[in-house]
Specification:
Helix content is 27%, strand content 21%. The protein has 270 residues and is an alpha/beta fold. Strand 10 and strand 11 form a beta hairpin.
Length: 270
């Protein structure tokens, strides 16, 4: 796969001059524009919280004890229907301020429910939205394009990885601005395969600005499931993602949690 460009051009915030936010713009790949003092404080909070983000191996209290948000978004908004189905997006207005970029949004997992796609389209009318699920469904008119696919690591000749899908759609050189994932446990294979390729210089992964996903810890109360979940969050961090949102799915709060991840520049994590 070719390396998608990571040069991202945003209009700086109207509240602060561009010369006053060069550090934050550089270390957030253009997402945040704030004073150096506030940015350094933000980094300190992130680094401090991250040191406390893996403190327990206890399956019963896994989400209570581990992996809290390390960064906040001042204008975070819930998009989609209330309850199960909607997702929190970090400062969605920033996508409107992109210069010379076509918005690409992937939604993995639908179950014939398209409130998220409809709400995103209302906020971002020019967005190119693609929805994927293994069922026989159809997107609402003028909202999204539906693709029938079983999502995973693409190794079993049935499922498709993210890279396979991007190649099939001719999106291999594009950035994904929002990736929404709710695929009932297959998120492990999907992300493990994605980040496995990031370690190979000839197989760079796509630039994904925000990842909104539900993680399923499973019903097995064993060490293996806990370690795999810990490792997944560590992979996000190693690939320059910070947690900006966390909430339980009350249908099974000990096993299902929603997370929002924001891609930043590697310099932020040093």
């Amino acid at each position: 796969m070719h390396t998608p460009t990571t040069t991202i051009h945003f209009v700086p915030s109207s509240d602060i001059g561009p010369d006053a936010c060069q550090l934050s713009m550089a270390e957030s790949d253009g997402w945040f524009c704030e004073s150096d003092s506030n940015w350094k404080r933000r980094k300190m909070i992130d680094h401090t919280q991250h040191q406390r983000n893996r403190i327990s191996e206890e399956r019963y209290l896994f989400f209570q004890d581990n992996w809290e948000p390390t960064i906040h978004c001042a204008f975070e908004r819930r998009i989609g229907k209330p309850g199960d189905g909607g997702k929190w997006i970090c400062d969605i207005h920033r996508f409107k301020e992109l210069i010379d970029s076509e918005l690409l949004i992937y939604s993995f997992g639908s179950n014939d429910e398209f409130s998220f796609e409809s709400a995103v389209k209302k906020k971002l009318p020019s967005a190119d939205i693609h929805t994927f699920d293994s069922g026989h469904y159809e997107c609402p008119e003028d909202i999204c394009t539906y693709h029938r696919a079983l999502l995973g690591d693409g190794k079993d000749h049935r499922s498709k990885s993210l890279q396979m899908i991007m190649n099939e759609l001719g999106h291999e050189d594009r950035q994904i601005h929002i990736l929404k994932v709710d695929i009932e446990g297959s998120e492990y294979k999907l992300f493990e395969e994605l980040f496995r390729k990031s370690k190979k210089k000839h197989n760079n992964i796509p630039y994904i600005r925000q990842i909104l996903f539900e993680i399923h810890l499973g019903d097995e109360y064993d060490t293996e499931s806990v370690q795999r979940a810990h490792r997944l969050f560590e992979l996000f961090r190693e690939n320059n993602y910070a947690i900006f949102h966390k909430e339980p799915n009350l249908y099974g709060a000990q096993s299902y949690f929603e997370y929002g991840m924001l891609r930043l520049n590697r310099a932020f994590f040093r």
